[in-house]
TrEMBL record:
GO molecular function, one term: NADH dehydrogenase (ubiquinone) activity
Biological function: Core subunit of the mitochondrial membrane respiratory chain NADH dehydrogenase (Complex I) which catalyzes electron transfer from NADH through the respiratory chain, using ubiquinone as an electron acceptor. Essential for the catalytic activity of complex I.
EC number(s) reported in the record: 7.1.1.2
TM stretches of this protein: 6-25, 57-79, 85-107
Endoplasmic reticulum keyword on record: no
Recorded family membership: Belongs to the complex I subunit 3 family.
InterPro entries hit by this protein: NADH_UbQ/plastoQ_OxRdtase_su3 (IPR000440), NDAH_ubi_oxred_su3_sf (IPR038430)
Major place of residence: mitochondrion
Keywords: Electron transport, Membrane, Mitochondrion, NAD, Respiratory chain, Translocase, Transmembrane, Transmembrane helix, Transport, Ubiquinone
Subcellular location: Mitochondrion membrane
Name of this chain's protein: NADH-ubiquinone oxidoreductase chain 3
Lineage: Eukaryota, Fungi, Dikarya, Ascomycota, Pezizomycotina
Pfam families reported for this sequence: Oxidored_q4 (PF00507)
Bilayer topology annotation: Multi-pass membrane protein
Length: 129
């Protein structure tokens, strides 16, 4: 039996076995909230469904995507580093230098600092006494 045939038989069999184990051993206790339409786990109250969202969370998400793409672009070089030579290493170092300078610029502008509303609320309570 070849490895390809083995995987075409093994993977569906494994998935059915794991689904069967889940159906047998997982607790099943439905209730009204669990079967209703899901919106953040609770019903929204008047005025709470469209609150302002801090832009810093989006900046962190964009940074994650940027560094994730960096890994995606560095990986082919690392796989073929033996045949790339000095030219490939130079191009990769210029690419990493550009990313590092951009990250240092964001740190210098304090674009990655998120102000905690809890700390601000606690300080406001102290001054309002």
């Amino acid at each position: 039996m070849s490895s390809t045939t083995f995987f075409f038989l093994f993977i569906p069999l494994l998935s059915f076995v794991l689904l069967a184990v889940n159906l047998v051993f997982a607790p099943h206790n439905p209730y009204q909230e669990k079967d209703s339409a899901f919106e953040c786990g609770f019903s929204s109250f008047l005025g709470q469904n469209r609150t302002q969202f801090s832009i810093s969370f989006f900046i962190f998400a964009l940074l994650f995507l940027l560094f994730d793409l960096e890994i995606l672009l560095v990986y082919p070089y690392l796989v073929s580093a033996y045949t790339n030579g000095v030219y490939g290493l130079t191009i990769m170092l210029v690419f990493l230098l550009a990313l590092t300078l951009g990250f240092a610029f964001e740190l210098g502008k304090k674009a990655l600092s998120i102000d905690s509303r809890q700390i601000l609320n606690d300080s406001n309570k102290q001054f309002n006494l």
